[in-house]
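PT: before anyone asks, these are the final sequences, not the draft ones from last week. 771 residues across everything. Please model them as a single complex and drop the result in this thread when it's through.
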Amino acid sequence: MTVTSIAPETVRSDPERTRRRAEELFDPDLSPVLRRLGQRPRGAADAATLHPDDAAARADVADMLVELGFLAAGEAGPAVADLVEVAELIGSALYQSPFLDTVTAADLLAADPRYDALRTEIAAGERTVALAWREDGRGEPHHPAPLRLDAAGRTVTGVRRFVAFAPDVDLLLVVGRAGVEDRLVLIAPDAPGVRLRRQDDIGRGDLYEVTFDAAAVAAPGSGPAGERYPQALARARIRHAAYLAGLASGAIELSAQRLRDRTAFGRPLASMQALAFRLAALAAETTAVLAFAREAAQRADRGADVRLAGAQAAFLAADVARTASAEAVHLHGASGMTEGCDAQVFYRRAAVDASWLGTPTGLRIEAARLLAAGYAAEKRD
Amino acid sequence: MSTTIERDPRLTVAQERFRDDVRSMLAEDRVRRAVDDVAVYRPDQEAAHLDVYRWLGARGWLAPGWPVEYGGLGLGPVESAIVTEEMALAGVPDDVHVLSVDIVGSFLLLEGTEEQRRRHLPAIARGERIATVLFTEPDCGSDLSALTTRAEPDGDGWRLYGSKIFNMKSRFGDVALCAARTTDSGVGMHGITLFLLPLRSAGVHIEPVPSMANDRFDLVVIDGVRVTRADVVGRVDDGWRSINDLLQLERTGIDFHAKARRLLDLVIRRAAQTGRLDDPAYALPLAELDARLTAGRALSWQMVQNLAEARPDPVASAMAKWYVTEQFRPILHTAMEVDGLDGALSAWDADAPGLGRLEAQYRLGPVHRLASGTSEVMLYLIATNGLGLL
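LR: through. Structure below.
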């Protein structure tokens, strides 16, 4: 596969400094609190409301992420290498917010200079954006769902599902196939013709079905997703892989603590090799995935083609996140199933997050296609 | 090209140039011919004193991290890893390099006397001397605290008695780093001393132990060879500590990754040639293995970077070694799916694809999870030192 330069300049990064700063926010003592923020009662569906204290705490953390400067950067946006550090800590804490979607939206919007003013506002933390690219749960972001724009391109009709934090953000960025190209469309969630319905999902979070009925496109109008789209999606997948690696390490740490605390058959579970080795293997897999995400991020910041790396890192991370969280429930025994145990929170969140930017199978198919194309190009060379 | 090693974003311009130079030299016809020759060696032949080592040694590339006075280039762990990686990617047999440079050479650099270094390192760095490792015994492998080779006091020195097995290349070696018990305190880890044992001594008897791999193991019986304090590497009775410290330091996973990558590239190319890469049933597992090796390489290079910054991480090193070597099994199994029974044809069969390399690799496969600390030892290190378990 030929390495294509997407961003002309190398994006400056300082991952170690970024991590130190982010660790101040995602302190291990605070993480258990953060991961419970925003959970809704099971089956509450559209009637679920967020406790005001939770909403305030969640907003405070979001403000801190902005104040720490994680959204601000040069013209090319924040460095992926910096953001993987933040994403990993967010995953470990299971903190839910529009932050990562907003970062991706800013990256996608860089395809069209008409969005520059909005990107400046995003970098300043003045605007948040949710991504809306699926018509249904089987949709894969590398094949955005069809989009119906009117002839003048001023209104949109259709539906998007699994849109996170739709009522809480300033704008929805709808990505869709219109004619022969993928387009970006901004719509305010409270615009006339927009209807929101909270989806009752296993993560009990903030996913919405958004129905557009001739909903007005926000200024400056729709724009082409362009060649930037697959690379921006790949960069999002790299960040998401780090988030999932963080989720896995949070689950592993919880499990290790359980093994140290719990006694069975007259000795600590921690002394049992069968259990310890399973966790050790998961820890190694998680560390490898994070190393992959970090290296891919550096390559992305140098303008390399990271489509293959993005897909691969994301499916490896999805696998380890699901397995580590399932292992966390198992190692906690029946108590792992209880509402009071964080192991089941990791387990339920991983079910959603593992497919957030593509199902692991969809990502594998995409990676296999890119790999075969690379070898075909090699044969031609 | 995704299937070859891209430039590492962490490398400096000089390091990238160094990699280019090493890669160019290893791509020369004479090297490719030498590598192909090894692939079709007769069953009784095996790689030892290869010209490739001397060609690399002549440029100081066999041990680029060593100081100039010992035959290196005074560079660092990154350049050493580059050579290791490029050699493996080019298919150059690396057992002699790992044993002589990476293990024995590193012990001498860190723990050896000046006289030992001057006597052995320049010749090793030139590719003219082979140094091997005699740790494992018939009754002790991973648990070296159980070793029984004795160093019996003899005047101002010792006489060594014991048997060492499953070592490689000792038949071709000049000297070996030999672990023997100098003090029997009842505590297995205490009382082990490392000696430089001249392999061409009257009291050293070496015989090959055939294995299913191309290269044979060696059984080395040591019968009263006399050694003195000048032959001790490190401190008397302190061998356990230095073995553990150094093996953990040297365990980056770089060498294992590069061998796995060369193997996977071979398999993917076969899949591309035969059309199986267009079939998702084959392409999906290959894409997964490609991803796993990319992850393993990133982790391995992070370990190299840690060494270069003098902040080694033994737990993460164990993770790198474990993770990378766990990929050999699925790669080999997938390889046999891609080629079917053709993959089972050996280099001595005219119909074997790719000079029978796949068949040879299949036989060699189990060694990677055993060598340099078994997978279970790696998991033990991660579980104990990393997770606070066991």
